[in-house]
Amino acid sequence: QVQLQESGPGLVKPSQTLSLTCTVSGASITTSYHSWNWIRQPPGKGLEWMGVIASDGFIYYNPSLASRISISRDTSKNQFSLQLSDVTPEDTAVYLCVRDLSSWGQGTQVTVSS
Question: Rounded CA gap, 11 and 61, in Å?
Fold first, then answer.
């Protein structure tokens, strides 16, 4: 059974870069035909899909975030990561890593505040 666990700072200052890592267990992130996603949910709002890295390394971003987002992976650690630059308080959200939009991490709260 695949498990996903987000980790990273819970507080980021405005204009800085938010960095999160998703550690995967129970499955390899390079196993074919799977997508590894980042999704976030701001307080009181719906889910926002941020981007994906596929098992073959293909990456695609939500166009609304494309100028600020970067997703990468470390196959030796079975992890994939999110970086979001130039954050503002509007980036405050619960951030989740998700496989195939069916297996979800528990989420991690990130607050952007000075």
Answer: 23
Q: Which residues pair with 104 in a beta bridge?
A: 98
**Encoding tokens for residue 78?**
């079975």
- Amino acid 110 reads V
- Asked whether the beta carbons of 90 and 75 are under 8 A apart, the reply is no
Listed in sequence order, the residues at least 6 apart from 22 whose beta carbon sits closer than 8 Å to its beta carbon are 4, 5, 6, 7, 36, 38, 79, 80, 81, 82, 97, 105
Does residue 49 surpass a pLDDT of 90? yes
Which residues 6+ apart lie within 8 Å of 46 measured at CB?
none
The pLDDT of residue 20 is 98
Average pLDDT, the chain: 97
Sign, CA torsion 59/108/20/111: positive
pLDDT band at 71 (very low <50, low <70, confident <90, very high): very high
